[in-house]
Amino acid sequence: MNKQIAFRVVLAVALLTGCVAIEAKPPTCAQPLGKWNDELKSVIEIRTYDTTTGAITGEYISHTDVGSYPMVGWINSASAESSAPGKAGKGDHADVFTLAVRWVNPGGVTTWTGTCAVNSQSGLAQISTLWHTARPDTGHEWDHLLTGSEVLVPIE
Amino acid sequence: MNEQISFSAVLGLALLNVCASVEAKPPTCTQPVGRWKNERGSVLEIRNFDAATGTISGRYISNSGTTGSHPMVGWINSARSETSDSKGNHAEVITFAVHWGPVGGVSAWTGTCAVNLHSGLEQISALWHTTRPDTGFEWDHTLTGADRLDPLE
């Protein structure tokens, strides 16, 4: 009886360790589910990825205001049907991502758009993006939109 | 019997006309469900808008570069900032992202929706990024530009 209990405990611990190890695996371009850090040390967590449609959902967990905000977007890795200039086998292929987040207080929306590829120096995947942010309340008519670039890296 | 049938037919047609006229109403910044057309004749069709969460979804019917309709998701945010200055400028903000399917690539538009002072009509003014999976070089995956979308009557 005691042996049975001890065996079950060992089995449960082994399974738990296995699960933790699987969960701790950092996301990649092809397996993007997981957490990515932006340059502000905030976290973009991709929680669902439908490989049929390319749809992704998740949340942006802010480092600065400890809030979390909903995210939707797309991944598309399909090779273009029409040939791009210089393609013909010699071109460059990348997985492409777009993420859209809705902010609350202050309001606004942001999209990141870019490519995911392995960084040759770190050996890790990274998403290199350009972003636009639109803010509903600003001082003038001409300063609603901001832009910039950002690299997202997987959290180990 | 015949009178009943013709009355029903007239009533049916009348209801149909009412429905058609309701549907034909052009979208606005606060009632964005409907069709918006850009300068190149492509159409953004917002089919769903959840005012509680700000979620929008629908499709984008392209008239340039590629044909067909492509799925769209995004957000609208009209919340006034708690710290907003009453002397400042307020606009509805919108973002929508499109998946180009087997054509390859994704695009995202981000911008404001406000009344155009010249036309008096509401319009979405947005900046966009498009990222393509297959290009000639490592440095030419992402394109950028600006779009204006007008409500389609």
Put the structure in a nutshell.
Chain A has one helix at residues 2-24; strands at 34-37, 43-49, 55-61, 68-76, 92-93, 95-103, 108-118, 125-134, 137-138, 145-154. With 156 residues, chain A is mainly β.
Question: Could you give the distance between the termini of chain B?
Answer: 40 Å
How many structurally independent domains of chain B? 1
Domain module count of chain A? 1
Q: Please give the largest β-sheet of chain B.
A: 8 strands, antiparallel, barrel
Average the pLDDT over all residues of chain B and give the rounded result: 85
CATH homologous superfamily of chain A, by name? Avidin-like
Oligomer: heterodimer
Task: Report the CATH architecture of chain A.
Answer: Beta Barrel
Helix content of chain B: 10-25%
Number of helices of chain B: 1
Task: Give a structural overview.
The complex is a heterodimer of chains A (156) and B (153). With 156 residues, chain A is mainly beta. Chain A has a single domain, classed as Lipocalin. In chain A, 15% of the residues lie in helices and 46% in strands. Chain A is built from one helix and ten strands, in the order H-E-E-E-E-E-E-E-E-E-E. In chain A, strands 1-2-3-4-6-7-8-10 form an eight-stranded antiparallel β-barrel. In chain A, a hairpin with a 4-residue loop joins strand 6 and strand 7. Chain A starts with a helix and ends with a strand. About 11% of the residues of chain A have low confidence. With 153 residues, chain B is of the alpha+beta class. Chain B has a single domain, classed as Avidin-like (Lipocalin), CATH 2.40.128. Chain B is built from one helix and ten strands. In chain B, a hairpin with a 6-residue loop joins strand 6 and strand 7. The interface between A and B is large, with 59 and 56 residues. Strand 5 of chain A pairs antiparallel with strand 9 of chain B.
Spell out the blueprint of helices and strands.
The complex is a heterodimer of chains A (156) and B (153).
Chain A: H1 2-24, E1 34-37, E2 43-49, E3 55-61, E4 68-76, E5 92-93, E6 95-103, E7 108-118, E8 125-134, E9 137-138, E10 145-154
Antiparallel strand pairs in A: 1-2, 1-10, 2-3, 3-4, 4-6, 6-7, 7-8, 8-10
Chain B: H1 2-24, E1 34-38, E2 43-49, E3 55-61, E4 69-77, E5 89-90, E6 92-99, E7 106-115, E8 122-131, E9 134-135, E10 142-151
Antiparallel strand pairs in B: 1-2, 1-10, 2-3, 3-4, 4-6, 6-7, 7-8, 8-10
